[in-house]
Amino acid sequence: MKLSLPTYSNFRDVAHTLQAQSDLDLQVNPNHPSINVSLNHSHWYGYNVELRAGLSFSVVEADFQKPFYLAADTDNCFLLRFTFCLSGQFNLRFEPANEDILIKAGHCYLGALNGEIALASEFMPLQKLILVRVDIDPLLFKFFIGDRFNALPTDLRQILVSHGSGCCWHSGHISPAVNVILHQLLNCPYQDTIRQLYLEGKVLELMALQANQFTEATKLVPLTRRLKPDDIERIHHAKHILINNLINPPSLTDLAKQVSINDFKLKQGFRQVFGTTVFGYLHQHRMEQSLLMLRSTEMTVTQVAQSIGYANPSQFSAAFKKKFGILPKTIKAQGM
To answer: What are the tens digits of pLDDT across the range 96-143?
Structure first.
């Protein structure tokens, strides 16, 4: 099935266009910008929340039984867009740039859009798709992050600063800490004005974590030291070895031997690919995993500490507070 939309950001316009172009079983909530679409056992649900002027948050959940194509035009838009894919995948095509991006689970995408851009989405069947999207006015975003705006990827910053027409996208990974926030957004326990306040706080926290990932990624080794594709693959292999051995991780020398790379290139490569040192990444992953376990399991603080390689719970608590500004026992006690 193929549908075309006149605009890309207004959910009510999307609903009206879908209704006009097809025989969909379509439900539109008049009091909340959401739409619910069903057709031949396929389902598409989406809603949008305007948090403040220049900042919005939206969710799309879909389950297609057949291929589904959706074309949309941006109407002189000027925005920065964070897209988080929690489940499924789809292909997104931009015109006139003639560029394709595969949006897939576990990844975040930061894009700058300026001008009239045509977008086409191709959704594959027999999969559950869950997307969270945050749109923010670039000037508001620049106000929030201050000088860190200059650390954004150059091509993205040029579109936003020069107001040049076009679009560009950069991808990153969804960390455990970001994953927790995304699920909190999807399962907001509040209503009315408290809900609005809660969602805005979580969206700002979400953007802070992902913006940090994208800005840190620009602090890399000079171009003359760029890694070869097979070296990048070895760096990712090393990362997987680390996160699968949180309790007893290998030494830097042993890790380098396991992925068939010298330790100097391993150290430089980790900074280039992940924006941190080898054991800086290990520490960050330990902390994010511990936060996820504290919030989503019945494990005690001591059990969480041991599961990520801390024999001393006091050392774990100190490291956790340094990372997140709060003690792990407070997370457990308050159900945060």
So the answer is: 656 678 888 888 888 888 877 777 788 777 788 889 999 999 889 988
Q: Could you give the residue range(s) of every CATH 2.60.120.10 domain in the chain?
A: 2-216
Q: Could you tell me if 63 and 87 are in contact, meaning their C-beta atoms sit under 8 angstroms apart?
A: no
pLDDT in tens, 193-244: 899 999 999 999 999 888 888 776 654 444 334 567 788 888 889 988 998 8
The reply to whether CATH 3.30.2310.20 applies to domain 2-216 is no
Give the residue carrying structure tokens 């430089």.
268
Pairwise CA distance, residues 293 & 276, whole Å: 23
Domain 223-334 class in CATH? mainly alpha
Whether 77 contacts 112, CB under 8 Å: no
Phi then psi dihedrals of residue 182, to 5 deg: -60, -45
Asked whether the beta carbons of 111 and 160 are under 8 A apart, the reply is no
pTM over 0.90? The answer is no
**Residues recorded for the chain:** 336
